[in-house]
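User: Predict the structure for this protein chain, please.
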Amino acid sequence: MNPRKTGRHLTQAVTIKDVASHLGVSPSTISRALARPELLNAETRARVLEVVEQLGYQPNLIARNLRLQETRLLFVVVPTLSPFFLEVFRGVERGARESGYAVLMGHTERDAAREHLFLDQVASQRADGAILVTSSDSAALLARSKRMPPVVAALEEVEGLDVPTVRVDHRKAAMDATNHLLALGHRRVAHIAGPDRQTIAAHRREGFQAAMTEAGLDPHAYPTLSGDYAVTLGESAMETLLTCNPPPTAVFAGNDEIAIGAIRTMKRVGLQVGKDISIIGFDDQRIASLYEPPLTTMRVPTEELGYRSILLLVDLLRGKADVPDTVLPTSLVIRGTTGQAPA
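Assistant: Here is the predicted structure, written as structure tokens:
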């Protein structure tokens, strides 16, 4: 046993049997209290934790993990370290603390090889499971579907891959965003989209086109400009849209950063956002409410999405038979960048 200092004396480390003997219960009860506290009543759990603290018991986590063949470690795999994905991670971390897990975040820089590296580490038991927040290459995931480790897909489903999912309905949310512009009287509406090959961007584009078609308007009246979710895309795309004759009176941007880029171009050429041209974003990142003027956008419950994803993954790891997919609601947040269509 490893020595432990108490005052000036060296004593042997307290064992789980010492704690059990002090309480008059079995060592398995102590083990359950520390590993699966939800299985015990509140009074027993409190007594165990009090004596553990009093005696200074330190569980041997390495031996425990080898015995149970688990690491109590989970990966969160994201494409970038943008504020949006950091909010998702915040929710994951909250759920992990409540469930007794540690989490590490890895970003792939939208590189499918890096994405698969994290999944391979789970498969080799360096972690118990992973939350995959959007996939860089869904086709590659489908090819390895028979050897997938425990995974929950967050934000969007991976079409054809049978893994639990916590997501939002991007198509419906995009329809809601477009319908908000249409309700303000806009008929010349353009869309600046995210990456062409990304499922999320495709669903948001489909929602825009569906709303326009239902309103009897041509969704292709303006070029659908696309690229990375970045301010620079919004700037260059708006420059292009302003050369159209006539230019749009409203723009639905694929995310908040694109929307802010579009507004920056408008400001540079002397146009007023919300009056000359209305802009609506998507996600409701923190910058949306801080920008001037504050951005009208579709809110994605990012922290809740991460939180629910980790709880779903823990259920999966505990062998729960029925782990249902979850669709979280989005909501329209009206601020200062949308207004009535100009006469």
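The mean pLDDT is 84.
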